[in-house]
Amino acid sequence: MNSYLPTLKQLQYLVALKDHGHFGRAADACFVTQSTLSAGLRELESLIGVVLVERTRRVVRFTPLGSRIAEKARRILREAEELTDMARAAGKPLSGELRMGVIPTIAPFLLPSMLPKLRRDWPDLRLFLREETSQAACDSLHRGQLDCVLLALPYNCGDVESMELFEDRLFVAFPPGMPDGAPLHATAATIDEDRLLLLEDGHCLKDHALAACNRPELRAEAAMLGTSLHTLVQMVDNGLGMTMIPEMAVAAGILNGTDVVARPLEADHPSRRIALIWRKGSPREKEFRLLGEALRKAA
């Protein structure tokens, strides 16, 4: 066996530099000094006999081979983490660190009720949360930066396992002061495409809302202006249009203090499916299913 193998620490430095594109930020992410990280990378390059990173005063540029080795290093680090995960899963479940991504259309509405119950039922669990859009969370999951993700289906997140937790009904939010008042029944036909406000691209709720309406023209006509559901509700309250919001947001009080009227959407597929997902083959699958049950009860 070759006794001159790269260390996990050297591979960690390489992956951090690839992710951050800056020696200082990569060093901060690894909790070392910049000189320590730079020296570790030079040792790695000397060890394998190739240049991985081209260094200039202003730019950090990976060589083509350096980029491929960085991605391989990422997979090695993930496998190394799964060794410890395997040992932990065989011992006390839901203990130690767990990094979970949550999408923005779930996090502010479910987490306040969820977290106290998780702390009570699993006191040894150290849950680190990261709020990201669906695509960013899926990318972080496959890079090994997250252990699991709480998101809404349908959504293509690649090669993952999933546990569906519950259905989340969609509502249509109507502005105050409509000439005939808010309709008693919200159907796709009641949505005015010229006044529909949706979230920006990157939020899967937009796609779920449009799919539920089954009106292709809405995608082209909708004014996609909102960066968050709270922003959309305020826009609706000020008479700028109508929008679609999930039931969990309504239940959490997003309409409190407004004159917005929300009606459940009547359609063939009027809801999104909230699910917990993780990488296929993860040794922590049993833990994730325990977590999923806890989340389902908290919801």
What secondary-structure arrangement, pairings included, does this model have?
Layout: H1 8-20, H2 23-30, H3 34-48, E1 53-55, E2 60-62, H4 64-90, E3 96-102, H5 107-121, E4 125-131, H6 134-142, E5 148-153, E6 160-174, E7 186-187, E8 196-199, H7 204-213, H8 217-221, E9 223-226, H9 229-237, E10 242-246, H10 247-251, E11 261-266, E12 271-279, H11 285-298
Parallel strand pairs: 3-4, 3-5, 7-11, 8-9, 8-10
Antiparallel strand pairs: 1-2, 5-12, 6-10, 6-11, 6-12
Strand tally is 12
Uncertain regions: pLDDT < 50 for 5+ in a row? none
What structural class should be given to the helix and strand makeup?
alpha/beta
Distance between the termini: 52 Å
The backbone outline, from C-alpha atoms, is elongated
Helical proportion, percent range = 40-55%
CATH class of the largest domain: Alpha Beta
- SSE arrangement, N to C: HHHEEHEHEHEEEEHHEHEHEEH
| Share in β-strands | 15-25%
> Quaternary status of these chains?
single chain
CATH architecture of the largest domain: 3-Layer(aba) Sandwich
Total number of domains: 2
Average of the residue pLDDT scores: 85
